[in-house]
Amino acid sequence: MDVKLNESVRQVLSDYLEMNHHRKTPERFAILDAVYTLQGHFTLEEVSEYLEQNNFRVSRATLYNAMRLFMKLRLVVRHRLQDGTRYEANYANANHSHQICSMCGKVSEVKAPEIVRVIDNTKLKRFRKDGFALYIYGICSTCQAKMTRKKSKMEQVKTKKQNKKA
């Protein structure tokens, strides 16, 4: 994990906890460190497993409450995808797009500066935007190849049946 990033997100959490008179518990900071150590999209189960592997156990309620707090602070973003709810570290990554395969559910990030530019230049009435997430649904190349192979096999079988009848 990037040390500077780690210090920044820890400071955001620490400042919030102080300003709102909440306790600075080791559990909150351990969960935050786990979130920023895991790469890409992750589930709460993966965070829990990571913590257990590092000999740090937290209750399910503590994990849920911490994630809810991190989402409020925009340190984490929640994605509700085909294969369930996934989370992603979000600090300094407010604008990003995802492509999601409708067949296999694979999710990957898309770098699209044109989309960012268009949304940044979009004027909204009585609303101050501070970030966005875009989901683009379609079929990935792997699933497209599988569909093509399957279609080709079906056509071969159909041709063989027609040849037998002739």
What do you see in this structure?
It is elongated and about 85 Å long. The protein has helices spanning 3-19, 26-37, 44-53, 60-72, 113-121, 141-165; strands at residues 76-81, 84-89, 95-101, 107-110, 132-138. The chain has a three-stranded mixed β-sheet, with no helix packed on it. A two-stranded antiparallel sheet has the order 1-2. Helix 1 runs antiparallel to helix 2 (26-37) and helix 2 (26-37) crosses helix 4. It has six helices and five strands; from the N terminus they run ααααββββαβα. The protein has 166 residues and is an alpha+beta fold. Strand 1 (76-81) and strand 2 (84-89) form a beta hairpin. The mean pLDDT is 89.
Rg (CA only):
22 Å
Number of helices: 6
Order of helices and strands: HHHHEEEEHEH
Number of strands: 5
**Spans of 5+ residues with little confidence (pLDDT < 50)?**
none
Average predicted local confidence, pLDDT: 89
Helix content: 40-55%
**Helix-strand category:** alpha+beta
* Terminal Cα span: 67 Å
Strand content: 15-25%
The biggest beta sheet reads: 3 strands, mixed
Shape: elongated
Strand line-up of the largest beta sheet: 4-3-5
